[in-house]
Amino acid sequence: MTRFALALALLTLTACHTDSATLDSGEYHASSFIAPAGEYDTVEMTPPDWTLRLSMEARTFHIEGTDFELSGRLSADDTWHSACPSNISAIDEQVTRLDVDAIEVSGVRFVAPVLIALCEQPGTIALRSSDALDSFSPETIYFELAQ
User: Would you say residue 54 lies in a domain?
Assistant: First the structure.
C-alpha cells in the first residue's frame, strides 16, 4: 500500500505541474491576421508586413512596416491568462498591454491592445484587443519569432 500511495502522490504532483508561456524578447514577423466578418464569423486576411521588436527587459516595443511605425512602452504589470486546458491543469499565458489607446489595421481596430504568449504555438505572440481575453473578439494578428 505504501508504494501505491507514493506513486499516486508523485503522479499527482507531476500531473498538476503548470507550465507557463512567456513573452520573450526578440524580433517577430506578422504571420497571419484574423478579422471579424459578421457577428460571429471570422475571415483570414493578408497579414500586414510588420516586424515587432520586443524587449521585455526594457519593457519596450517597436512595430515597423511598409507604411506603419509605432514605438512605445509595455505596461509595468503583466497578467496571466489560463489557457490550453488539460484534464487536470492548464498553462498560463503571459499577457502585457501596449501603452497605446488603439491600433488600426485594414479597418480593424485593436482597442487597448495586448500581446499574449501563446501556449499552443511556442514562439508565437498574438496581438489582440484587451477585451478579447474574456469575450468573443476575434481580431488577432499573429507574430512568429524570426529565425
Answer: yes
